[in-house]
Amino acid sequence: MTTRSKYPGAADYVPRTHDLDAMRDAAGRCHGCDLYRDATQTVFGEGSPDAGTVLIGEQPGNDEDLDGHPFVGPAGHLLDRALDDIGVDRATLYLTNAVKHFRFVQRGKRRIHQQPRRTEIVACTPWLTAELDLVAPELVICLGAIATQSVLGAKAKVTELRGRTVELEHFRVGATVHPSSVLRATDRKQAYAEFVDDLTRLFEPG
């Protein structure tokens, strides 16, 4: 028996438009899951509207939630450094997240990141699908398990896919770890080197 999500999902909020700015504006009013209740704001994707490559992360973090832009916190800074190391200009890319609102628990004055639930990921999928349809990239790079499963299905594993791409109907999909995992690694230098190596291989022409 199929278990139905308690969330209505974002489908009813996604407008019929070919304008990313209009899509972003509509996403700001999304109540497709309960995450909007506590988040400061929706954090939609940003970047070149005709980017050849889209990078997808998990969800906004604390800094992104407050700032309203993706990948502006510590993980984003590490990603910027890695892109610079391999000679890729972030301005040529489109960056987004599988889930558009920050999920957290409040502990005193701190907001502690919580992994989004599968139902929340599914509820937010229409926004990600709409972004990919509008940008129409040649390459999609998934950063971490949540992003990878959002694009390739719940059984997809970063450990089996990292550093290589698979062909889908409309684009190639590659996977690597989320940059936040590099920041948490015991051997951060080695983890960063492996992350950069993954990106180098993923950005190679298919």
UniProtKB/TrEMBL annotation:
Residues 44-200 form the Uracil-DNA glycosylase-like domain. GO terms for molecular function: 4 iron, 4 sulfur cluster binding; deaminated base DNA N-glycosylase activity; metal ion binding. GO terms for biological process: DNA repair. The keyword DNA repair applies. It holds the Pfam family UDG. Keywords: 4Fe-4S, DNA damage, DNA repair, Hydrolase, Iron, Iron-sulfur, Metal-binding. Belongs to the uracil-DNA glycosylase (UDG) superfamily. Type 4 (UDGa) family. This is Type-4 uracil-DNA glycosylase. It comes from Nocardia fluminea.
